[in-house]
UniProtKB/TrEMBL annotation:
GO terms for molecular function: transferase activity, transferring alkyl or aryl (other than methyl) groups. This is Chlorophyll synthase ChlG. Signal peptide: none annotated. InterPro entries: Chl_synth, Prenyltransferase_related, UbiA_prenyltransferase, UbiA_sf. One of its GO terms (cellular component) is membrane. It holds the Pfam family UbiA. The keyword Transmembrane applies. The chain crosses the membrane at residues 12-30, 42-61, 95-125, 137-162, 168-186, 214-233, 239-258, 265-286. Keywords: Cell membrane, Chlorophyll biosynthesis, Membrane, Transmembrane, Transmembrane helix. NCBIfam families: chlor_syn_BchG (TIGR01476), PRK07566.1 (NF005742). GO terms for biological process: chlorophyll biosynthetic process. It comes from Methylobacterium soli. Its main location: membrane.
Length: 294
C-alpha cells in the first residue's frame, strides 16, 4: 500500500494553524496568576497538546471529511491531490486523536477533560452525521471555542491544577465569542465550493457583504465588554491598551468592508494580530487580580 511522504503529513497537520491555540494557551498560563518556576515541563507539554496535537488533529479530521470540497476549492491539498493516498488521512486523524488523549491524561484530569471536549467537537465539526460545519452558526462556534476559550482554560488549569478563576473564564469566553467573527472571515476563501456542496457558511447564507459586517461586529463587541470589565476591576492601563488595539482593528475593518472578498485574508493577517495582542494584554491584567484573590 502506498504511503504518504513526510511533507504531505506536515501539510495535512497545518502547522500554521497551531499558533492560535498555542497563543491562547499561553494567555491562560499568564492569566492564572501562578509562577511558571518549576512548571516549564508542564507548560511545554500543554503547548504541544494545544497546537501540534489537538489542533493538528482537528486539521486532519477536517481535511479527511472535506476531501470532496477541497477537490473543488483547493485541489492541491494532500488528500485530493493524491499525495496522502487511500485512507491515510483517516488513519492520521485517528492516531493523532489517541496521542492527544494520552498526553492530556498525563497532564491531569482537568486537562484530559478539556482535551476530550475539544477532540469531540473537532470530530463533530467535520464528520457526519452532525457535521457542524454544514452550518456556519454552529460550526464557527465550535471552532472559535476550541481555538481560543478551550486552550486558554487549559493553560490556566495546567498552572492552577484546578478550575481557573471565574474572571479568567469570563475573559476567555469573551475572546472565544469574538473568534466566531475570525472564523467567518476564514470562510470567504471557499464560498464557491461551499455553495456547490451544501455547506452553509455565513458568507454563503448572508452574502459576503453582510457576513463581513457581522464578523466585524462579533469581533468588536466582546472586546468592548473586556474593556469594561478591566475598568471595573481597576485595571485602567490595560483597559486603555486593549481599547487602542480595538480602535486599530476598527480602522482596518473600514478597509475590509470596502472589499470583503478581496481583503478577508488580509484582515486575518492584520486586524486579527491586534485582536490576539489584546488577549495577551487582558491576560496580564488578570494576573495580579488572581494572585491577590481580589
Amino acid at each position: 500500500m502506498a504511503t504518504p511522504a513526510p511533507s504531505a503529513l506536515v501539510e495535512l497537520l497545518k502547522p500554521i494553524t497551531w499558533f492560535a491555540p498555542m497563543w491562547a494557551f499561553a494567555c491562560g498560563v499568564v492569566s492564572s496568576g501562578q509562577s511558571p518556576h518549576g512548571q516549564w515541563t508542564m507548560i511545554a507539554a500543554g503547548v504541544v497538546l494545544a497546537g501540534p496535537l489537538v489542533c493538528a488533529t482537528s486539521q486532519a479530521v477536517n481535511d479527511w471529511y472535506d476531501r470532496h470540497v477541497d477537490a473543488i476549492n483547493e485541489p492541491n491539498r494532500p488528500i485530493p491531490s493524491g499525495r496522502m493516498p487511500g485512507r491515510w488521512g483517516f488513519y492520521v486523524a485517528s492516531a493523532w486523536t489517541l496521542l492527544s488523549l494520552a498526553v492530556a491524561a498525563a497532564l491531569g484530569p482537568w486537562i484530559l477533560g478539556a482535551a476530550l471536549f475539544g477532540l469531540v467537537l473537532a470530530w463533530l465539526y467535520s464528520a457526519p452525521p452532525l457535521r457542524l460545519k454544514r452550518n456556519g452558526w454552529w460550526g464557527n462556534t465550535a471552532v472559535a471555542l476550541c481555538y481560543e476559550g478551550l486552550p486558554w482554560f487549559t493553560g490556566a488549569a495546567v498552572m492552577a491544577a484546578a478550575m481557573p478563576d471565574r474572571r479568567v473564564l469570563m475573559v476567555a469566553f469573551l475572546y472565544s465569542v469574538g473568534a466566531h467573527g475570525i472564523m467567518t472571515l476564514n470562510d470567504f476563501k471557499s464560498v464557491e465550493g461551499d455553495a456547490r456542496t451544501g455547506i452553509r457558511s455565513l458568507p454563503v447564507q448572508l452574502g459576503t457583504d453582510r457576513a463581513a459586517r457581522f464578523a466585524c461586529l462579533v469581533m468588536a463587541l466582546p472586546q468592548a465588554v473586556v474593556i469594561a470589565l478591566l475598568l471595573a476591576w481597576e485595571r485602567p492601563w490595560h483597559a486603555g491598551l486593549v481599547a487602542a488595539l480595538l480602535l486599530g482593528q476598527i480602522l482596518l475593518m473600514g478597509r475590509l468592508l470596502a472589499a470583503p472578498r478581496a481583503r478577508a485574508a488580509w484582515y486575518n493577517g492584520t486586524g486579527t494580530t491586534l485582536y490576539v495582542l489584546g488577549m495577551l494584554v487582558a491576560a496580564f491584567a488578570l494576573r495580579p487580580l488572581v494572585q491577590g484573590g481580589l
